[in-house]
Amino acid sequence: MSEAMDFKVIGTRPIRPDGVDKVTGRASFGADFSLPGMLEGAVLRSPHAHARIKSIKTDAALAAPGVKAVVTGADFPQVAAGAIEGGEGGGDFADLAGNVIARGKVRYHGHAVAAVAAQSRAQALAALALIEVEYEPLPAVLSLDAALAESAPLIDEGLMTSGLPEPATAPSNLASVIEMGNGDLEAGFAEAALIIERRYQTPTVHQGYIEPHACVGRWGQDDQAMLWCCTQGAFDVRSMTAKVLGQPVGSLKVIPSEIGGGFGGKTTVYLEPLALQLSKKSGRPVRMVMTREEVFRATGPASAATIDLRMGFSQDGKITAAEATMAYEAGAFPGSPVGPGTMCVFAPYRIANFRIKGMDVLVNKPKAAAYRAPGAPQALFATESAMDEAAEKLGIDPIELRLRNAVEEGDSAIYGPKFGPIGLRACLEAAAAHPHYTKAKDAGVGRGVAVGFWFNVGLQSSAEVHINEDGTVTVIEGNPDIGGSRASMALMAAETLGVPYESVRVVVADTETAGFSNVTGGSRVTFATGMAVVEASKDIIAQCCSRAASLWSTDEDMVEWRDGAVHPRPGVNVEATPLSLKDLAGQAGRMGGPLLGKASLNARGAGPGFSVNLCDALVDQETGQVQVKAFTAIQDAGKAIHPSYVEGQLQGGAVQGIGWALNEEYVYSPEGVMENAGFLDYRIPVASDLPMIDTQIIEVPNPGHPYGVRGVGETPIVAPLAAVANAVSASAGVRMTELPLSPPRVLEALDQA
Amino acid sequence: MQGFAYEAPSSLDALRARLAAAQGAGELTQVLAGGTDLLVQMKQGQRAPGLILDIKRVGETQALTVDGESLTIGASVPAAKAKAFPLVAEAFPGLAHAIDLIGSSQIQGRASLGGNLCNASPAGDTIPALIANGFEAQILTAGGLRTLPVEAFVTGVGKNALASGEVLLALKAPVPGPRSGDAYQRFTPRTEMDIAVVGVGARLTLDDAGVIASARIALGAVAPQAFLAEAAGAALVGTRGEPEALEAAAAAAMAAAKPISDKRGSADFRRRICGVLVKRVVAQALERCTTGGAK
Ligand SMILES: Cc1cc2nc3c(=O)[nH]c(=O)nc-3n(C[C@H](O)[C@H](O)[C@H](O)COP(=O)(O)OP(=O)(O)OC[C@H]3O[C@@H](n4cnc5c(N)ncnc54)[C@H](O)[C@@H]3O)c2cc1C
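ok -> structure tokens follow
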């Protein structure tokens, strides 16, 4: 792409196409859908964190008023192991199936054991109480240390650690080990003038999407099934549900609703297979909607992590060696994001000598799910805390210290590939010059700096562009719109076709209408699906050029597309007035039929996203309470297609990261029961807890995208944890290494200082 | 949620008669003011009344008046109205702040002080402010009326002194004289939409010489019910609120506090924050004795 692109609509800030419906309440979300004769489903959940199921009796429930069907694990096929491709969370189909409904054993408090469909929700709930389950409780494993202890109770008796140099000989709670390294670690540390060595810990947190999981399932007598649900990926719901039910993918149609947040947590299935199995048994459509409590007890936390970090620095602040041992809680089934965590932990820096070890560890908690930049916030909390401490001890400005080590274009990333153009240095320089950084701090305030990083991914996407008979444009794609992507698709189509933004409508279609697309995740939609939309638009342009050429009886290379119309090329001697999209659409019937452009691709060339966050925080020395006084998020977007929605991503990620840093955590009883399964005691920040989050978009174009786009959705949550912790550490005068920085924890640290 | 009957009597007599009938028939009755506690509890399955008696149409529960020397706040007056009442805003800024802490604007359009008090959460925000300000509860009984000081009205976690068939009608307190000030502060991890880890209310009155003549300190969320920490108040009387006096009051309050450890904070943390808040609240009330208070 050319550096100096002259955009007409890209970079403007029009109103999003889905905006009016959403602010007026007309948009339909997961729980809004209903069908005639529909039943209401409810789930019986385990009261134990870890127990063997000895028997389940459902007769009384089935005989209860209004009840039409009951299912248990016995109603579902055994699913063979096999990797889940293309999702954010990854993992294995057999584990997915085991998480959807327990068989033989319950692995966490809240694990689904049975489900009921009845004519009303009250009847379904009453019937749940009639299901008799006999349990043999087992000791619960609730922390990384407990899980890895010598004689720890086994969560999965057949689990053999993978990734060890020698195959494991006995089962354990350690699902896998990842190791990578380079250079001479000990020589690097020997060279160091300063070594920072600490243990950093982060708690189990939830994505906190406002919309609970919900779906309606309808099984047909011809064994064709339909699912209406809120999800980040209808095609993923289709493949996962089909697998759990042992059905061919083609027998299932998934229709995504609007989505009230997902943040990675809606890239998997929980209720969908249950609803369909209940529908199959009852012969009626079944709706299932989780309560907030169920969302907390049974869906997607982000992994708690313990990271032992050791970093060596020369006197002038160069990193001489770095070592990380990272243990992430997978929850009850393997698949924490420790893999990406290991790849991210040192990604922003040039480090010749390093060693990284990652461990995926089972505990009796809900199965971890993706959460924005899965694995990276925990990892960079550790590294960026250590960088801050090093800057302080070496007497080097924290931004300067990072500039001295920052990766640049041409450097090999620690995780393998060579970086193309990247914006880390530009973000650091912008931070150093930002008024937030140059202005004096108020008394008692601490200022924190941290860097964020996420790979961003490509994956598969499809798009169709239909030109309507009046020249308006319909874009059909398959990625649920979470952060304003319809607007971005419309902007890219409008830019490519040279038509006004308002003439483009974008449809997020179901799995039988849109071509295949991977999940809305990995910060991939504006990049990869955007690329498909641009290519499909170019397909339209090619068709228009060909039609105009034949109308003008000239060759296709004698014409060109400019400003939304086909023109004869300059110097070509054809008597013709330019033909606009509207002109050609109006004559489509006489020129070969409707104009339909399409593209399907596996997008390569995703551009990594870097950020720098600045945070001012004030600690109340008597109570340990933290006030965030100022926060600035600076990030390289490649190209901001719709700057407001990029800023929204930066602000939203900052807020979620601030919550993770300050007060969010799962509080467990010794028996493994989450004690704060609601928004009163699971403390997401409220508006009055926050300053205005200032943003600055940096644009270092990604050559892998026609308009320079990098993903922007995930990087924003990575830096805030350390930015806040560094600010709090400075204000408190004591280094904080364990999140959340809740008042009791900060007060305890102040006592010890 | 189970089905239930809803009725809204429109006079004191009708209310009393309906209560008596319900009692006679053994109907599980729940009074409704704003419903911001009750509806949540019903949805969570904690309460399943057969009859809901809405008291908002009973005029006495909607009173908001100053009558000579006393302020009356009807039990079902919405928080938004109570906190904006000129006398409350001017002479009871601590209570006004406590009311303002309840939920959000939307919640305050419905939530009442009577509901906050009857619900008797140890963490209810207005209760320490009501106690510090010497409010008494006016109770409708089968045969007439009775009164109880607010500190005697709350009797445990979610428990109050109302007998079956009784209803709280109004809250009444003396209008403060000159050189008097109140304050309330709570500690929560978040700034809003949170529940008090500790709440402290104070009402101080100075004599002509600027010496503290009376002091009432009430503590919330550090015992099964909010209570008057008499020793903490006593530690201030006769002083000018010097740092040592504040320390003594804080120490007395911490000694009187009997907090539990739970997900919202350990007992030690709560006790410690209680001490900090007592000092801050007393300092604020003291300042109001000279700058604020009734004019
Ligand atoms: C989102 C949210 C946030 C909240 N935040 C706070 C907060 O920050 N601080 C706080 O203290 N509270 C808070 N609350 C709780 C609640 O709003 C308050 O306790 C409120 O004052 C209750 O008043 P109400 O009129 O709604 O009571 P209701 O729900 O109507 O009644 C509460 C209870 O008292 C009984 N009752 C009510 N009036 C009488 C009467 N006159 N006689 C006898 N019994 C009666 C009812 O039967 C019921 O058991 C919050 C609630 C919500 C939903």
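The first strand of chain B starts at residue 5 and ends at 7.
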